[in-house]
Amino acid sequence: MFTRVWIEEEDERLKRVWGEKGSLKILAAKHFPGRTGKGIADRARRIGLPTKRGNLGHGQVSYCAMQMRKAIEENGPLTCYELESAAGVKMARAQEIVREWLENGECHVVDWRRRSSDGQWSAAYALGNGENIPKPARKSIASVKRDWYARRHGKKRTPNPFAAAAGLVTIPQGQQGRVINNCWDDQEAA
């Protein structure tokens, strides 16, 4: 069986493209015509490249980070939940990358937004170094209950039939029977 010797130029090309996404077959066809995926993997192991191609920093993490940066640049500050849909990355990956960015000073918190799903606060991140805005204080239990009661009963409020007897409303004088305001009455007056 004939085996082709690897030349120095091919080794350099292999080091340069080893982190590209895609299968080794595609890598072989694109950059190394006449070589198999197994042959490329063997050569990579011999010259000391990592066995998992995503470990180079050119793989999935940096691709996700690139997509997240692009989404933030196009849409402005985004939360991790918004980054998940805008950049097409998984939530755990987005949170991991944002944590890394915060440690390195590559992004900062510019806003806090309530999630529509559960009402919890989510930080909105912008690129660049800056001051992090602190998380808003929690509402008191009394305030939460008051808001809940207003939402719950505000929509179901019906007129009180005893409001006139209790003196809460005034009865129109000078007309007998039921007073009905029609929508066309206002137009004639105008």
What would you note in describing this structure?
Helices cover 46% and strands 8% of the residues. It is mainly alpha-helical and 190 residues long. α2 packs across α3 and α5 crosses α6 (91-104). Strands 1-2 form a two-stranded antiparallel sheet. Among the domains are: 8-56; 60-127, Arc Repressor Mutant, subunit A (Orthogonal Bundle). 11% of the residues are buried. The protein has eight helices and two strands. The termini are far apart.
Give a brief outline of the structure.
By secondary structure, the protein is mainly α. The chain is 46% helix and 8% strand. The protein is built from 8 helices and 2 strands.
Question: Descriptors for this entry?
Answer:
190 residues; Arc Repressor Mutant, subunit A; two-stranded antiparallel ribbon; 8 helices
